[in-house]
Input
Amino acid sequence: MFRSMLILVLIALVGFFSSGLPIEINDLLYIPVERSVSYSFQPAYSEVTNPQTVKFAMTTTRTSVNIQGTQGKNIKIEVFKDGNKLEAVNYDEEASQIPDGNFTITRNNPLIVQLDISQKTTRLPDGEYIFKFSSSNSKLDSIEPLDLRVTYKSNPQYYKSLNYYPKGTMGIVLYFPEKGKNYMVPVTRFVPYTQAVLNTTASNLVTGANFSTGLIDTDIIPHINKVFYNGSTVYVDINSRSDRLKDNPRLFHALDSIVYSMCEIPGMERVQFLLDGKRVEEISPGITTGSPWSPETTPAAYLALNTVDRYLIIPYRPDTSSAGSIREIAYILFQTLKKGIEDDHMVMPVIPEEVKLLNVYYLHNTITLDFNPAFLEAYKGNRQKQTMMMDAILYTYTTIPGVQYVKILIEGNDQYTFADNRLTNRFKRPLYINPETN
Output
């Protein structure tokens, strides 16, 4: 019966066409809504290198489509590398004309969303990827995603850690959260010399990170009334009227920034937060401040955070609780320096896989690391990476309690030079890590 009716309709259509009368087939046959929507990029392209933002458009060829909009969650992106889907890739909907609530897509009123897929946001390492863009609205599930080939090619620089400061200045080590807010990153800022180190540290934290570092450059520190110390405790008095007290996720990182930065000042070990001069159990809901905060002091491996523009070495603390000796801690840290962080490809290992730690010795305040000859070949021809590797080793092994100096051997021999360092010497950690400017 259905087939007979379809044949009759087709015959009717043939009759119309043969009569020369204009006809839109959509006028006669129902086309599902989801098939009337198309995706495009503005301007049109199919591949990009080092993108910052893209404009993704949804329009309809004929039938209007009503969808439910949700600010910041209108577009779905799936990312593939060598045919394998990657999980938890970051991206941001930066701008859209769609409000929360109903939105009607028509031929003359497309939905246009601007998305940030920069490498700093996606946190994807260098390479080629296929991005698949589609609407997150359930009405449009059946539409094929729009593909975009994305290539990331970064060229980060590394600024060597220093043991000196320009004349008339002093170096203060400040900690800022990186954009993903997963790590506290130390950077050194050189400022005019002053004896008011606590206040200078506080005011520079409020200023935020230098843009060139690739870290969070917006203000996150709440307004501070005053800073003072008693013994080894720094007291930071926060103004209760500061709007930044209401942003709990950012506030937690802001307070951590204060703690780690203040405890870089010689003799300072902990921070007690006050609210308008009074100690309170919670400075904001869920953030307890009744007792002083202290930075973590367990041994840390310093790894390379790629902020796309720069490498910054950052402390990452593997579990060393099972280690019963300095030797065992040293090997755990070495493996971390070689492997990096498995689920974050923007935090990179600093020691190549072929380098092996043959032996470890500890005597008094000096740890001796005996490597195979591959150590001398590491990053050959790339002095910046060699310098970064050397800095990372010095910062890493001096986080072990009792270690002040690092001695490096190659199969028991110290008659070598690496990254302009004569291995006949023993080394202390440099004073100023990750200088903000070169």
